[in-house]
Design a protein that fits this description.
Helix content is 16%, strand content 30%. By secondary structure, it is of the alpha+beta class.
Length: 500
């Protein structure tokens, strides 16, 4: 910046010249600069006199003029930044009103496409480039079309546990309720429509790691960190449904869950509902944490999986241990039974899952499958002849029971996969992830959609499990996570398949 060897007016003119060219492309924002408001007759030199400085008066005047120009330039940038932020807020409000979400949630990092002609300087251009970052993609999978129901709608949030929720399940008999298993040593039953807690089971002395309902009776099976599995009966009465609130935003709820303190519960918390404390039957042959349990077809036997590397088969009526299924090299992570056949699949941290066949009482054949490179977090049956396995290696594989030498489809994701579920009617796979996402795929591995997630909806911590409910000609997907809440979603299956 030349300040010596030239006149003050020439230097100031050279400094103002690029400023005038930039003003031609500015936002034409009117402002008043306090540095230009001087009393009449007071010159710059008069303002500088009396100040303790050894610089020549002409040089000081030149410097003051240059710094004034810098100040005005930054003021322009500041005003333009405020205008950009207002436009971003307005755009995000319109997107929210249309039922869409922007990844990242923070409006200060949203997407805004501006014209280059509005640029006032290189700094402002860099600012706008930041607003165009790749994280601003809109979740088009859930864009509502005119005159049609959106692909996904938030049904209800179920809040009342005081620790993370590991597992959830929906009853197979009337009344249809949702069950959740939590690290707070309890299992809760919920009204799906109202979100009210109906019953609390408090018979375990450790974390409740899974919950499954009897196929025909009002009984629940829970597995716990206290090294036992419990069978207990329940009786609930559904509350009278209230008129639905008038909600204009799609996939949103009146309650902003992000504003709640963790552990805060609704008015009817678990302490204000009926509590069952004694189990009908206690299954206690394991020597380690019981991580999962399920009913065999017919409900006369149950299977449990434990960190002691074994799965046990019990008679429900006598609680007698029938078989101990051994062979895994490390802790078991999950077990699942076939809906119509006497088949059991167990998954383990040893990167394998095993298929156990009890269709012939005299033969208990086992097949070992080594398709993953990390912990197999779950493996589940479909209504057809398929098994779907998920793993910490960030893949999900679909297998054919008739030929399980290699998977028929492989889904690759960007995060570890937890307890998956497959819808019975449409055979859609729901994948819960460590990174809080929930994605939907078909059996051929084609991605169908992703559940919306923002500051106002979705899980705030990892999603542990998913479960489907396809009763009453509707399709609901339930998710739970370590943020202490379960969430119900209504999935528009016809529109979902049409988008495919």
């Amino acid at each position: 910046m030349p300040v010596e060897g030239g006149s003050t007016s020439g230097s100031a003119s050279a400094a103002r010249h690029p400023k005038q060219k930039r003003k031609a492309h500015s936002l034409s924002i009117r402002r008043t600069n306090s540095t230009e408001e001087r009393p009449a007759g007071v010159q710059r030199g008069d303002m500088l006199e009396g100040q303790d400085s050894k610089l020549p008066l002409a040089l000081r005047s030149n410097l003051l003029d240059l710094f004034g120009q810098i100040e005005r330039e930054f003021e322009n940038l500041y005003i333009e930044n405020l205008e950009l932020r207002r436009e971003i807020d307005s755009l995000n409000e319109r997107l929210t009103g249309d039922g869409q979400t922007v990844d990242g949630g923070d409006p200060s990092k949203g997407a805004l496409k501006t014209k280059a002609s509005h640029s006032t300087s290189q700094l402002s251009q860099k600012l706008k480039t930041t607003y165009k970052a790749s994280t601003s993609k809109i979740v088009s999978s859930f864009k509502a079309t005119a005159g049609s129901r959106p692909l996904c709608q938030l049904l209800k949030e179920y809040m009342g546990h005081r620790d993370g929720i590991w597992d959830l399940s929906v009853t197979r008999t009337q009344p249809v309720v949702l069950g959740t298993a939590s690290a707070d040593h309890s299992a809760l039953l919920w009204s799906i429509e109202t979100g009210k807690c109906l019953l609390r089971y408090a018979g375990h002395a450790g974390s409740v790691n899974s919950i499954k309902f009897h196929p025909t009776e009002q009984m629940a099976l829970t597995a716990s960190g206290d090294q036992t599995a419990h069978i207990w009966r329940y009786m609930v009465q559904l509350p009278v449904p209230q008129p639905p609130p008038d909600v204009s935003a799609l996939c949103d709820d009146d309650q902003d869950s992000s504003d709640r303190e963790e552990g805060e519960v609704d008015g009817e918390g678990p302490c204000e509902v009926p509590t069952v404390r004694v189990a009908t039957a206690t299954l206690k042959s394991h020597q380690g944490v019981v991580i999962a349990a399920d009913w065999l077809v017919g409900g006369r036997q149950v299977v449990s999986a434990s960190w002691d590397r074994a799965a046990n088969l019990y008679e429900v009526e006598t609680t007698e241990l029938v078989h101990t299924l051994t062979g895994h090299d490390q802790e078991l992570t999950h077990c699942c039974t076939h809906p119509t056949q006497r088949l059991v699949v167990t998954s383990s941290r040893d990167t394998t899952f095993r298929l156990w066949d009890f269709r012939d009482p005299s033969i208990h054949s086992v097949n070992v499958f080594q398709g993953h490179t990390d912990t197999v977090t779950s493996a589940v049956f479909t209504v057809g002849d398929n098994v779907v396995s998920g793993s910490d290696d960030r893949t999900v594989k679909v297998w054919d029971l008739k030929n399980m030498r290699s998977p028929i489809a492989t889904i690759r994701t960007d995060s570890a996969v937890n307890r998956i579920s497959v819808s019975a009617n449409q055979r859609i796979i729901a994948l819960p992830h460590d990174n809080r996402q929930v994605r939907l795929f078909d059996m051929s591995g084609v991605r169908l959609a992703r559940l919306p997630r923002s500051n106002r909806m979705g899980h705030r911590r990892m999603v542990c499990c998913t479960a489907w409910n396809e009763e009453n000609q509707s399709c609901n997907l339930f998710t739970c996570g370590f943020d202490r809440q379960a969430i119900g979603w209504n999935i528009n299956i016809p529109a979902l398949l049409q988008e495919k």
